[in-house]
């Protein structure tokens, strides 16, 4: 397929693509769009940064143009579910850009922001609704959303949905959809769980795959530096002294770790911002905007940003901590080498992370090049700094019956008694719970994503 005109897309879409500078479809677009134009259900497998969003947005928009009708009040003609707020915003923006030459109503629904504007948009009716599962279930439970006239149902990053325990929320949403609809599943990997879910929810789907499972980006130069834990921050500063690391994303395992790395970089004169689950939506958007605009060189993130953050020109990805789930490595390094560019991924690995490194190499079927950056034995740098005798210790709650001072956390998908969808007692009418975590849960200090 040489250009988009050969796909039979409507003229307004070809005009928008031309204005955006897109001339030729990517492999996933060239293979998926013809099937979707004929109304087939589809499972699309492609690594991050290959144009999956346009692969499903273009044929959907073509249908909206060629089959015009009023958007259903309280619902939408198109529903796209996304695991994170950032990815949901990015998908909605892609729909707006590709549909710039048509009258299109698009709304993003996710947690961490007031409900009012979302409810008003639903009441008017939408062409395209992009949502995270938790907040959409809130609207369903409160009677603000009605999805019985949805024509297209899209699940994006399905493997992450399943990894993060979204199955119940997905089934809750699917139960409100009409049986006659077109289903589209897009993902970067294809574990057996996705095949099982596709078999349940899709009707005779065609599968399109343009990359092997768990294949890392071809244009990423990957390397591993062996270094002691206590020296990682100093090694990171040394790496960032290279002016070639002009736009770098640094991944940490915990929210607290992300803040500490950011503070350390700022203290050494390297402009950095952090993004993780303890940041408000406005803080996260400001940090991303500063990074996109080049006002800061480094974005320090937990795995909340491992997928869905599409930022042009990311030169380097640094795994300050190796991920506990090997698949996350693939998505982390996919933040660089996008849109045909090349990139570099550097992983800092201490002795306790060797098993994690082996898991990554098994998954990717690669022997990653390594370099020993450990301090020479006997040198002062080889020993971690001693803990001060006056260092404050965690305070415990001494009230009768009180447990540890750290609050107990709920598991994946947990809801308090009485919340919508729980098995416990509830009020006669579901109420919005604006205080519940939106997008993340806490396991200790780790930043894992929950239905938002």
Automatic annotation (TrEMBL):
Q: Does the keyword Nucleotide-binding apply?
A: yes
Q: What is its EC number?
A: 3.6.4.13
Q: Name one GO cellular component term.
A: cytosol
Q: Show the segment(s) annotated as Disordered.
A: 368-452
In terms of superkingdom, the source organism counts as Bacteria
Question: Do you know which Gene3D superfamilies this protein is assigned to?
Answer: P-loop containing nucleotide triphosphate hydrolases
Q: Which CDD domains match?
A: DEADc (cd00268), SF2_C_DEAD (cd18787)
PROSITE patterns named in the record: HELICASE_ATP_BIND_1 (PS51192), HELICASE_CTER (PS51194), Q_MOTIF (PS51195)
* Sequence motif Q motif, residues: 2-30
Q: What class of enzyme is it?
A: hydrolase
Q: Which family does it belong to?
A: Belongs to the DEAD box helicase family.
Q: What is this protein called?
A: ATP-dependent RNA helicase RhlE
Q: Which organism is it from?
A: Methylocella tundrae
Query: What is the primary gene name for this protein?
Result: rhlE
């Amino acid at each position: 397929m040489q250009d988009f005109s050969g796909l039979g897309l409507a003229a307004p879409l070809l005009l928008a693509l031309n204005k955006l500078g897109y001339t030729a479809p990517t492999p996933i677009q060239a293979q998926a769009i013809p099937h979707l134009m004929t109304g087939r259900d589809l499972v699309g497998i492609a690594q991050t940064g290959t144009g999956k969003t346009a692969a499903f947005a273009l044929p959907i928009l073509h249908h909206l143009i060629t089959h015009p009708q009023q958007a259903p009040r309280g619902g939408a003609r198109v529903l796209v579910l996304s695991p994170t707020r950032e990815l949901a915003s990015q998908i909605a923006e892609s729909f707006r850009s590709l549909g710039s030459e048509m009258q299109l109503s698009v709304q993003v629904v996710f947690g961490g922001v007031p409900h009012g504007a979302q409810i008003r948009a639903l009441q008017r009716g939408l062409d395209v609704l992009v949502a995270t599962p938790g907040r959409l279930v809130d609207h369903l439970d409160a009677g603000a959303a009605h999805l019985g006239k949805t024509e297209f149902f899209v699940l994006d990053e399905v493997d992450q949905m399943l990894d993060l325990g979204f199955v119940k929320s997905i089934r809750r949403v699917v139960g409100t959809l009409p049986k006659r609809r077109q289903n589209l599943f897009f993902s970067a990997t294809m574990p057996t769980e996705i095949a099982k879910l596709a078999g349940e929810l899709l009707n005779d789907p065609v599968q399109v795959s343009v990359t092997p499972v768990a294949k890392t980006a071809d244009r990423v130069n990957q390397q591993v530096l062996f270094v002691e834990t206590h020296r990682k921050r100093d090694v990171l500063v040394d790496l960032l002294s290279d002016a070639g690391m002009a736009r770098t994303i640094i991944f940490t395992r915990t929210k607290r770790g992300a803040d500490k790395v950011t503070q350390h970089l700022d203290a050494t004169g390297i402009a950095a911002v952090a993004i993780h689950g303890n940041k408000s939506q406005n803080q996260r958007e400001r940090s991303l905007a500063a990074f996109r605009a080049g006002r800061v060189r480094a974005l320090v993130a937990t795995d909340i940003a491992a997928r869905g953050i599409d930022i042009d020109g990311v030169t380097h990805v640094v795994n300050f901590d190796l991920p506990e789930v090997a698949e996350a490595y693939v998505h982390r390094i996919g933040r660089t080498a996008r849109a045909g560019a090349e990139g570099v991924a550097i992983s800092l690995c201490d002795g306790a992370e060797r098993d994690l490194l082996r898991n990554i190499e098994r998954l990717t079927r690669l022997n990653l090049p390594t370099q020993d950056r450990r301090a020479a034995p006997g040198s002062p740098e080889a020993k971690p700094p001693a803990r001060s005798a006056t260092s404050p210790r965690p305070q415990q709650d001494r009230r009768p019956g009180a447990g540890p001072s750290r609050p107990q956390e709920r598991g994946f998908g947990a809801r308090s008694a009485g919340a919508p969808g729980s098995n416990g007692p509830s009020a006669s009418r579901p109420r919005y719970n604006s205080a519940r975590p939106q997008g993340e849960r806490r396991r200790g200090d780790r930043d894992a994503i929950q239905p938002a």
